[in-house]
Amino acid sequence: MIHRDRAGKSALLFAATTLLTLGAPGFAAVAWADDVVDAAKAAVAKYVGLQTEWLGPTSAPKPQAGKKVVYLSGDENIDTSHEYGVYMKEAGAKIGWDVSVIDGEGSPTSWLAAFNQAIALKPDGIAIFADAVSLQEPIKAANAQHITVIGLHAAAIPGPFPDLGVFFNIQGDPRNVGKAEAEWAIADSDGKARVVILTHNEYKIAETKSTATKTMIEKCSGCTVLEYANSPASQADQRMAQLTTSWIQRFGPPMYITSVGDNDFDFAVPVLRSGGIAPGQVKLIGADGTRSAYDRLHKGKSYQEMTVSEPVELQAYQAIDEFNRAFNGQPPSGFVQPPYVVTTANVSAEGGDKNVFIPSNGYKEHYLANWGVK
How far is 24 from 7, CA to CA, in rounded Å? Predict the structure, then answer.
């Protein structure tokens, strides 16, 4: 009996190998498709897990009291942009710093005016939730005056950008975030996702994120990119209703709509609901983890199925930490928090009961201890 089992397995292995070698129609393609789907499911299982391990810095120079920082909020109407300022003020106050906020009002022209206003305040540092490429002239002017510039979602990827005049850019890696959005759709559809990808390419981070989503979907042989749509983030309230209606009319459900930011879905959901579209027929996949996204996930059957949430408070504390390193002549920490996927199943975990992503890794206690604050 054992002999026959081994022989049977050998025969099956020989047949499979022969089919691959001879290029049997569809065999390799099916095997590859299964691999992509299985890998996507494994990745999603990892992304939804608790983030208990502290991967950030374990020491820091002693902060000098009395520093002045200005935060240029890309658009105070967007939860994420607003909350960075709230938490930077909180973190700065812990070490005797003054943090003020200027609203960039959602467009490169307004960012430029806001940055020049920030320079006029003669701060020690300026943090920007705006695209650094759009602000090269004022950033050069700031650097010339020895003003440190820190980015929050200000460039294509996290890290130092000396060529842009940015000491360190803080964000989740958009390549991983965009990939995670795609992997969720692939896993959820079992490799049959029909996907519209929405982006806001006035932000380099958005272009990087959405490109990663598109690249991953295209690796899934049974999936289809229906459209790659670029629309300004500041015009979401004006354009999302028309865009959503157009996608439904042209492509029809079932479909997935991914976006580089959850804010878009505040304006898509009413259109889907009024159009009588069943929640399971159109599934919304976002990023950032806004309060409205969490609210939709808590309610369930509200079209949004997941978001890749950014740890806004953690990153605000990191911004203050990176300024402290710069002011003390030290290099940046290099810390990048890994992606965290929030779904209807785990929405109450990791701060989700408060509608924010608060990793359970003790980040605030670690930063305060590093700064010598009790």
Answer: 23
Rounded-to-integer distance, Cα 150 and Cα 159, Å = 10
| C-alpha 42 chain-centroid distance | 20
**CB distance 73 to 103 below 8 Å:** yes
C-alpha distances (whole Å) from 22 to each of 19, 27, 28, 29, 30 are 5, 10, 10, 13, 15
pTM, 2 dp = 0.84
Per-residue tens of pLDDT for the chain, all 374 residues: 333 343 443 433 333 343 333 344 444 444 456 799 999 999 999 999 999 999 999 999 999 999 999 999 999 998 889 999 999 999 999 999 999 999 999 889 999 999 999 999 999 999 999 999 999 999 999 999 999 999 999 999 999 999 999 999 999 999 999 999 999 999 999 999 999 999 999 889 999 999 999 999 999 999 999 999 999 998 999 999 999 999 999 999 999 999 999 999 999 999 999 999 999 999 999 999 999 999 999 999 999 999 999 999 999 999 999 999 999 999 999 999 999 999 999 999 999 999 999 999 999 999 999 999 98
325, two tokens? 């390193």
